[in-house]
Amino acid sequence: MNATTDNDSNDGADGGAAAVNWTALAPEGGERVPELLGQLAGSDAALSELHDLIEFPAPGHLAAPAAVDFLVDIACDEETPPTDRWRPLSLLLELVTAHAEDRFPQPRDLDQWRDEVAWATSNDIEKVREQYRAWAEEAPDEQHYLRMRNRLTAIEGPAGTAVLRAELETFEAVCARVPDLVGLLKGAVNRRGLDRAGEWVSYLLAFLAPEAARVSAEITGASQFLLAKDLRPAPQAPTSLRDAMAGALDDGGDPLPAEIFALGLTASPHDVDTTVALTHQMAGGNLYNSFAASVAVVLIHGENTPREGLRRIGRGGGTSMGYEGLFNESWPHCGVRSPRVLGFLALGRAGDRARRLRLDILPGLLQGEDDSRALVTGVGLEMVLGPRSKGYSEEEHANAEYDEDTLKVLWAIAELPEPAWSDEEFTDTLRAWALPGEREEFCALVGVDPDAEEAEDAPAQAQAPAAPEIGGLLGRLFGGGGGRR
What we know:
Order of helices and strands: HHHHHHHHHHHHHHHHHHHHHHHHHHHHH
Largest sheet: none
Shape: globular
Number of strands: 0
Helix content: 55-70%
């Protein structure tokens, strides 16, 4: 939905924005949009308020497509201090990545998305809701399930299916501004310091799949990424003050970790130069770039990924930084989804080749990501048991001889503390696979004593502790009977 303006030009955020009928697009609070846009660059409060007003799927999201050009203009305006450009970029990222969990491991097909929105907005809303429920129940994998569930939740709101059209139009409006956005990849002012524009714009560009070829080319051209360090020309000493200043504004060094993340989502597997450059980064001395490049190689090559990429990711997870710290350095935080959660989902692009790696990441996510626990549980169960739509029964689980990988997932779930089991979304996820949603029943099924887990967490006593039992799940996982070690 394109907002009507008095003219096609934007005379500044608060000037041109005043010509848009924001109240018609966002009846509750829309009149504040011009003021908030005018304050946005330098105000965290304005950023938060504007986000809450136009985020997806809030009713005010109908105003989001009209806001895109103003947000891009603020970010790219030479008058905007480089240290403030992250605010409009971060809002654009949130608008583009609403429900980022359903964007991984495979990107959204734009033509299919357009067809879906056209169908949804031209049919009776009750029929559309019924169809989304059916699609969710029949989903072949967790990504499709999450997408259908999220669409259904969105159209339950007062804006109905119009919010789906606004989401698509927002995405298309951002794609149309790629020629301007890629300019923020260049120059030292955008590539250095905290909250640098080059980092935030890389996160945003990474999700614009229809523009992937251009984004990838612009990122590799923004630094000397395609040249190994030993092949890069030696920097020339400046001969004048002007040359020195020009050099300070032209950062042609290493890529930003966020740029490497973006390459993982945009580079073609047929782009040999980028793959070779990523392998140089993998073997380089920068731990963060090495990890980001390893993940990027896996995302680019999927099931054909070299083992080296997977091994280096696992090795990074074993460092003091761990998966959490390394993903935090190169991947974005979208909504409630942490970089580590998004990375875990994205590695599914490599299929079974990344299975052991993802199983290694999963326990930490279950224990440390409360907002995403149900999501991670569903993906973990899908990895070892198959899709939720397959149809399961309690009898199957009672008589099952689980393999090692399945036991690892079930054991990780059984180790969750009591408070986790009060999360209805989490327990509903277990029941989708016909697993018990009560802690005691679940632990009994998989052979874990929940009281023993609590005892291990209790403060150490003065007397020597008894040797741990290895019966139940431990015995099934590692062999042996129910005796002591």
